[in-house]
Design goal:
The structure is a single chain. The chain is of the alpha+beta class. It has 2 domains: about 80 residues, Winged helix-like DNA-binding domain superfamily/Winged helix DNA-binding domain (Arc Repressor Mutant, subunit A), CATH 1.10.10.10; about 150 residues, Chorismate lyase-like (Chorismate lyase, 3-Layer(aba) Sandwich). It contains 8 helices and 12 strands. It has a 6-stranded antiparallel sheet. The protein has a two-stranded parallel ribbon with strand order 1-2. A hairpin with a 4-residue loop joins β10 and β11. About 25% of the residues are buried. The mean pLDDT is about 85.
Length: about 260
């Protein structure tokens, strides 16, 4: 087993103002793995060594290692340092989301191909914004492409007062909510996310290059402004063979009496 030197990593403090600490550490470790400085089969520095070098907690270190493991770059081992498993991320996309920064991280290496933007009489769009049957919302349709492959069909609805102020050319960011914030001067405060299982119909099968009836993971995201008004409702339909969802579940149950 090859042991790699801690000295091969940059020596600096990680600061919260630069983003989530675990993600900063993950990127510091990712670079020498991808460029071969840390070869396949090499043992990473110990968790305690990483925590001391960067002034962070062991929990933060383990969170960073879980992210690299989800990408297929390392393999964690019980009571031993993690081992480099690959130089390139696995094709499977694993998303652990806790905030808007995690949403941004998922789309970091993707691009959004716009298909259309127009008024739409969709029932699910109207339901999201509480519109009457006579009102129409606006709908953006696109494909999220990762590594040259279509991974996600994106359908985003806007209420009339928001959608009428946007044009197709305004969606110049892979993150649609970020385009909305920038072009309309809004601040989105929160997103309510629901995940459900679907099967691919003809349109999804065509957009994502899968067979009709293939499993799809649909993620609904209802974004609200700081005054709690619904601004954007996005349905992202992912290929189930390239997408998974992960999250941490703390034990908040009362302690069992001894």
């Amino acid at each position: 087993m090859i042991d790699v030197s801690l000295d091969l990593l940059p020596s600096r403090r990680l600061l919260r103002k630069d983003g989530p600490l675990y993600r900063q550490l993950a990127e510091l470790l990712r670079a020498p793995i991808v460029d071969g400085t840390y070869p396949i089969g090499a043992s990473l520095p110990k968790e305690a060594e990483l925590a001391e070098r960067y002034g962070i907690s062991l929990i933060t270190v383990r969170h960073a290692l879980r992210e690299l493991e989800a990408d297929g770059l390392i393999q964690k081992r019980a009571a031993k340092p993690a081992v480099v498993a690959a130089q390139a991320p696995a094709l499977r996309q694993s998303w652990g989301f806790r905030n808007f920064a995690d949403i941004e991280a998922y789309t970091r290496h993707a691009r959004l191909e716009i298909v259309s933007y127009r008024r739409d009489d969709s029932a699910e769009g109207k339901a999201a914004f509480g519109l009457s049957q006579r009102e129409a919302c606006y709908c953006l349709r696109g494909i999220l492409v990762v590594g040259g492959q279509p991974e996600t069909q994106v359908t985003t609805y806007f209420p009339p007062e928001i959608g009428s102020r946007l044009n197709r050319t305004d969606f110049d960011d892979v993150l649609i909510f970020r385009s909305v914030e920038r072009h309309l001067g809004l601040r989105l405060a929160a997103a309510r996310i629901t995940v459900r299982a679907e099967v691919a119909g003809p349109e999804i099968a065509r957009d994502l290059a899968v067979e009709e009836g293939a499993p799809i993971l649909a993620m609904e995201m209802l974004y609200r402004s700081t005054d709690q008004q619904p601004v954007e409702f996005t349905i992202a339909r992912h290929r189930a063979d390239t997408f998974s969802l992960t999250y941490d579940a703390p034990n908040d149950m009362p302690e069992t009496p001894r």
